[in-house]
Structure formats: structure tokens, C-alpha cells
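Encode chain A's predicted structure.
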Amino acid sequence: MKPRKYRPALDNRGEMQTFYARIKTASPRGGYEFRDRKLLLMECPLCGNNNRHHVFRRANQPWELIKIPRGKSRMRRRRKRT
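Encoded structure for chain A:
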């Protein structure tokens, strides 16, 4: 299956639409941090899905992996001190 080519979404006047989203970027200290960025709204010509949709946003972000010690069923998140 080939990936679908997303195209810029146009409004009623034919202008390209933009939106702001939180993007996870690599931090110089290690790990990731969220930043607000202005993005072009892209749309799939077949199904109408766009890059503002939560399924698209979640699938295209880097994941942080944690190691769960043996015998524990869950872990608490630790907050990094700055």
C-alpha cells in the first residue's frame, strides 16, 4: 500500500489554511519538550482526513520509552527539575 499524498486544504476563497499545534521536539538537555508551531493544514484527497485530526497528530510524534522494573505493574511519571 502506498502512502497517501496530502495536499494543502483551501478555504472558500481559495487560500491555504493554517493552524497552531503543539509539536514534540528534541531538547538539548535530553528528552523532549513541547513547542507551539504554526502549521499548514494538509488534507487527504481520498478520505478527507487532515493533519489537525488527533489520530494523525498522535501517530506522527516521537515516543518516549520507559523501562518498567520486573515485578511492577505500573510506574509513576517523574517530573524533571529545571
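The chain has a mean pLDDT of 82.
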